From TrEMBL:
Key words, A-Z: Hydrolase, Metal-binding, Nucleotide metabolism, Zinc
Name by which UniProt lists this protein: Adenosine deaminase
Organism, as annotated: Vibrio maritimus
Binding of Zn(2+), residues: 12, 14, 196, 277
Residues at which substrate binds: 14, 16, 169
Length: 334
């Protein structure tokens, strides 16, 4: 397959983990937060080492990007550049998630933060053949007092650049019991729902995310493979899995790439999508992800076509954008 030429859809991509390293370095210099580190050392800190130990070490790579993503200019620029980079590798639709509460260190209002990233995305859409939307995330483990404020702040952009609500961050068993009030509040406002679950060992969290939080998609979900109830509720309800294979290996969600259940899920008619998670942190692209999955698991063009169509169907895009995306199916030669 011509992997570079294939049309692609990325439904699980984090803004702060996908900024251009050169941009982060430039902003760090401007803000005086390089801490005496050389350019090489600083840029290397943005991606995980080859032998990443666990999710906590993976998350360390977000510290510097978050430090410099505290102005409207930086947020708009990084948003634009992410969509530009994606468009240049034939990504036709991109959903980006980020946590607005993480960008208030210099006093920005939530509305300013959301407006900035949407503006960056819209600017890229005007220049390239790409469409996109933003997903607003909150982190598990943070105080819940401000969650409704995030949902309220994003409401003016609903279906105008913002489409969904997400719960992310370090995963603990049983976390879903803390959030039904907030997912219901978001759904009542018109948000779609996707939840990070089953990334770290706990398949029960996938079951809970669907049954307690009404998740329409699951971020990762890998460990549902060992939990029959979770597996059944996901498969029977056609809940899409936002799989991020390279990231899953790096965070030790799976031990090695060949152990990833993406092929088994796909062959058993579980709805799977292929995504980057964090382009910079994982040193990946959609082209790399699709190639690694197809080559490792001997997936055919017909397999990829099926996954592409699932990604269109399960995206939170408008009907008009979905119809546009279906027009690229012919570029997947079978």
């Amino acid at each position: 397959m011509n992997y570079a030429g294939l049309p692609k859809i990325d439904l699980h991509c984090h803004l702060d983990g996908s900024a251009r390293p050169e941009t982060i370095y430039e902003l760090a210099l401007k803000d005086g937060v390089t801490e005496g580190r050389s350019k090489e050392v600083l840029i290397n800190s943005l991606s995980v080492p080859e032998e990443c130990k666990n999710l906590d070490e993976y998350l360390d790579c977000f510290a510097l990007p978050l430090q410099v993503m505290q102005t409207t200019e930086a947020l708009e620029r990084i948003s634009f550049e992410l969509f530009e980079d994606a468009a240049k590798e034939n990504v036709k639709y991109l959903e980006v998630r980020f946590g607005p509460l993480l960008h208030q260190q210099k006093g920005l209002a939530l509305s300013e933060i959301i407006d900035s990233v949407v503006k960056g995305m819209k600017r890229a859409e005007a220049l390239y053949d790409i469409h996109g939307n933003y997903i607003l995330s909150v982190l598990r483990g943070m105080p819940t007092d401000d969650i409704k404020s995030v949902i309220d702040a994003g409401a003016p952009w609903l279906n105008k650049g913002v489409v969904a609500f997400d719960i992310a961050g370090g995963e603990k068993p049983g976390f879903c019991s803390e959030f039904p009030e907030f997912t219901q509040y978001a759904a009542d406002k018109g948000y779609r729902l996707t939840i990070h679950a089953g990334e770290q060992w706990c398949g029960q969290n996938v079951y809970d995310a669907v049954t307690m939080l009404d998740a329409e998609r699951i971020g990762h979900g890998v460990h549902m493979k060992d939990h029959q109830q979770a597996y059944s509720v996901v498969k029977d309800n056609a809940i899409a899995l936002e799989l991020c294979p390279t990231s899953n290996v790096q965070t030790k969600c799976v031990e090695k790439f060949a152990d990833h259940p993406v092929r088994d899920f796909h062959k058993d008619d579980v709805v799977v999508t292929i995504n980057t998670d964090n382009r910079t942190v994982s040193n990946t692209t959609m082209t790399k992800e699709v190639e690694k999955v197809c080559e490792t698991f001997k997936l055919t063009q017909e397999d990829y076509r099926s996954i592409y169509l699932s990604s269109v169907s399960k995206s939170f895009a408008s009907k008009e954008v979905k119809q546009h995306l279906l027009g690229f199916e012919g570029q997947i030669i079978v």
